[in-house]
Amino acid sequence: MGLFSKRSSSKSNSLSSPDVNKKGSSTSVNSSVRSPTTPGSKMGFANGNGALDTIPASMSLPPPPNPHGDPVAYLRSLYAVRDRTKCIMDAALKQQLTNFTFDKTKWEETVSYVVSIIKRDYAPDYHTIPPHGRWQHFEVGGRKRVDLLITTFGPDVEAIEKTKRLIDLFLISVLLDAGAGTKWVYKSKDNGRFYRRSEGLAVASMDMFKDGLFSSEPHNPFRVDGSALKLLMPDSLARGLQITATNPIDGLHGRAGLLRKLGQALDNKEYFGTDNRPGNMLDYLLNHSTTKVIDGKPYVLVTTLWTVLCEGLTPIWPQSRTQLDGCSLGDAWQCSTMPPGQYWERIVPFHKITQWLTYSLMVPMTKLMGIQWIGEHLLTGLPEYRNGGLFIDTGLITLKPQHTKRGLDAYHANSKKEGQPSVEVVPMFSAEDDVIVEWRALTVQLLDRLLPEVNEMLGLQGHDALTLAQMLEGGTWKGGRELAEVSRPNTREPPIMILSDGTVF
């Protein structure tokens, strides 16, 4: 399944060293705005303890929850993602994976490929690589849609309200960003161009936002509130997404149901205020007891934002997912590769959508409000099919034959359904399948280990080194997509397909 035929020796310590991500910097969203990174931070991910930032003396990150005392809180925390997935990486290094084989000889080629993508698009101005987030998807086709949107708000709208409106938009847009399938396209209202996948969903969500689909206030379309979302039906969303019999999208009913559940979650007045808006989380963050204002700039803990998103959005996730002590854990799944232990110890959390939200929402809050973030190093690489597909298409990991057969059988069965793809056959699994869980865990860990190697090959160090969010944006996510386009030009799908219900990825 790999594209690379040349075999090269690997650095024995590049994959096994625990100190894999101690480089980081602040960078630019554009030439004039700094991205959300912890001032003076080091990307110290190895131990998952979140204690590696250089932060103001008056601030400190909270310790991780005690996994034995409160496993639910632990598995919902950012700390657990890197901590739990490390067990899967340890198994890979010992060739003890359940579903994949791991070929360390492909490591240097994988690093070189990611570096080549970054050099092609950004050299020598690596500082201009924006952090991975939803903002870039809105700008597909070179159109500065977010900036243009802000100008339509008018000069009398204060910065805090502008920021709230962007939080409203970005949160809705990210939650709609599940896999779109191979056939769906969206015709942009601003330039008439057609867009697909994540960029198409971004542009579509902005058009629906401007049309007031998510607002209950007829005189103010530029907002999202629970009253409007609770009434959102699939047919309204289908019209907004331009869905027809010949332009289908995966998981329409799942997306609509997710947004209706979001409407109910927004009843949480502590996080979302009396008018039930996502943007009101800004008030909660700015007024939180851990937030400090230093030299006129607000410093906010990433863990505070994480609490809002993880706890505040808990009601939106399907209750059929993994539960512990009667509590839904969201994007967390059992994995057979985990070491023996109690039930909770065999669960691997990812919280991909919540992390994607965190990355995405930090950007407008920094650009418009000047918020500085403490603890960004706790965020991991996103375990989704573009980043994960990169490691399969380079041959670094390969699905074992018995699981390949099982996945191909599932693909063939699915292809018999109306509207489903039947070309460029690849293994297919549901999101909770052991194959997908192991694949996603490997993705988190391999991204961590890739970052210092990429920086070294680019000759970047200290405050010039790329952050993880920059590498995701400039290298791995884009590289994974481009490899898919070369390997499977008809569908451009990843090397393993995930059955989407519109709520997982």
UniProtKB/TrEMBL annotation:
Residues 1-17, 25-39 have a biased composition (Low complexity). Residues 1-49 are annotated as: Disordered. It comes from the Eukaryota. It holds the Pfam family DUF1688. InterPro entries: DUF1688. This is Uracil catabolism protein 4.
